[in-house]
Amino acid sequence: MFTESKFTLIAGAGPTGLTVARQLQRYGVPFRIVEKSSRPFDGSRGKGLQPRTLEVLDDLGLIDRFQESGGDYPALRVHRPDGETVEWRMDELHEPTPEVPYPNLLMVPQWRTSELLAEGVPVEFGVGVDSVEQQADGVRVTLDTGEVVTARYLVGADGGRSTVRRALGVEFLGTTHEDEQMLIADVRLSGLDRSHWHVWPADPGFRLGLCPLPGGDWWQLTAPPTDTPAEELVASVDPSITITEVGWTSRFRANIRMASRFRSGNVFLAGDAAHVHSPAGGQGLNTGIQDGYNLGWKLATGDDALLDTYEAERLPVAADVLGISTDLHRRHVTNQDDAMRRDDPVLRQLTLNYRGGPLAAEHRTAPGAVRAGDRAPDAPLGDGRRVFDLLRGGHATLLAFGPQSTLPALPASVPVHHVTAVAAQQAYDVRDSALLLIRPDNYVGCATQDPQDVIDYLKLIAH
User: Fold this and answer.
1) Would you call 252 exposed, middle or buried from its count of C-beta atoms within 10 A (0-12, 13-18, 19+)?
2) Cα separation, 148 vs 131, whole angstroms
3) Which of 98, 182, 335, 427 has the fewest CB atoms within 10 Å around its CB?
């Protein structure tokens, strides 16, 4: 089935591993994806998809399916101890703009996110990694089924307790706060309207939350750790609410850590295997998907120097995001008034960038607001298409703005588009002529006015 040492082995079939698999699949690169659990994950856990992640799903051709399966976050209805209720939003709903077509957090239960990403991907369930041995031209992996395989690359996307990371001896730096825990469960119930996310505060702190999940009649229950059955817990705040079924249940503990490196030889760490976050702010799952999105196209090239840029780009991003989610977590722990606010634009992950990194080639003497290393914004082109329509598909794309006396001779795999629409010029903050080479993961790679710069840049990313 697989030529020895010519395929990539992905350990872990959560959203991160599945994103890597989809990237390899689109490039026709052979892979195996194994999952230690005997069946797909069935909980709601990471239920918020940030705007940048929605753009990734657009590129992967999945955005319509996710929008059908999800919905906007509802307003909070806070049931105060004095019997009064207060309604407000963690973040106001934003209107789409030409540059940002998906401006709002989309709620999709994690089980559904995994299910949609897994469609068409041959996951091997009940198969985990037992040991890892680095070799000169690949990785020798012993699976817990007894099978021994030699893969060209191994991706450890096997969660916070990653067997792959431990086998490599990579440090998992950070802290675990055993005294900061949260009960999370999926429940069915009656006696409560589904138009709001209901919260019952304590004095001080938090007593109970019930959030309606889209696509069915399930709710996500959150509460401080307790041995009290969910039925009694809910009845204690409102006897008119009846729990009819309890599904997936977990006890979250504040585990805030990051791997000291994301690459070791031919092994790469991604998602929770590389960084674990507080759920505050909905950053962890999204960061993992974007790890996989960054890593997948680089694995497809098989170029060692390009693969080094995975850690160089994603480790600083993960560190920044970890700081953001940790700050929000601390606000919860200390019962700050703004602990539930989610209106900081950085949470949407649209401003995360690779400026100054090894693949950010900014050659212009007077660049505008959008520079090499930045996310490529969307914009209407005036002919019924959008910039995202040009970028979709996992290829590098050259956007040529303004009058061009000469254009570089590029491979047929790199489409060239003359961009004349004013809206696109505004979105990219281009005032005269410019050549913007957009990477396969839709970040601006090279920004220049010299065609030779584009040709030289393609040598870095196309193999």
Assistant:
1) middle
2) 9
3) 335
Written as one letter, the residue type at 102 is Y
User: How does residue 326 score in pLDDT terms, banded at 50, 70 and 90?
Assistant: low
Q: Regarding beta strands 153-156 and 267-269, do their DSSP bridges make them parallel or antiparallel, or are they unpaired?
A: parallel
Q: Taking Cα atoms as reference points, which of 237, 278, 235 lies closest to residue 255?
A: 278
Q: Per residue in 372-390, is it b (16+ CB within 10 Å) or e — as a string?
A: bbbbbbbbbbeeeebbbeb
| Radius of gyration (C-alpha) of the chain in whole angstroms | 23
Predicted confidence at residue 279, as pLDDT, reads 64
Q: Return the structure tokens found at 124.
A: 């091997």
The answer to whether the CB of 12 falls within 8 A of the CB of 156 is: yes
Q: Are 238 and 126 in contact (CB under 8 A)?
A: no
d(CA 211, CA 222): 8
Q: Whole-angstrom Cα distance, residue 284 to residue 119?
A: 22
Cα angle at 131 between 128 and 135, to 5 degrees? 125
* pLDDT of the residue at 323: 63
| Tokens 């903050």 -> residue | 429
Residue 339 and residue 322: Cα distance in Å, rounded? 17
Distance of CA 454 to the CA centre of its chain: 29
Q: Which two tokens stand for residue 130?
A: 């037992």
Tell me if the bond preceding 96 is cis, omega within 30° of 0: no
DSSP three-state, residue 172: strand
3-state secondary structure 75-116: CEEEECCCCCEEEECCCCCCCCCCCCCCCCCEECCHHHHHHH
State the DSSP H helix or E strand holding residue 199, giving kind and residue range, or none if neither.
strand 197-201
In the chain, % helix, strand, coil (3-state, to 5) comes to: 30, 30, 45
Identity at 281, one-letter amino acid code: G
The number of angstroms, rounded, from the C-alpha of 56 to the middle of its chain's C-alpha atoms is: 8
Question: Considering the chain, what percentage of its residues have pLDDT values greater than 70?
Answer: 90
Contact 296, 24 (CB under 8 A): yes
Categorise residue 5: left if φ over 0, alpha if ψ from -120 to 50, beta otherwise: left
pLDDT of residue 332: 42
Tokens at 409, concatenated: 């001779």
- Between CA 288 and CA 314, with CA 113 as vertex, the angle to 5 degrees is 10
Please report, for the chain, how many H helices and E strands are present, in that order.
11, 25
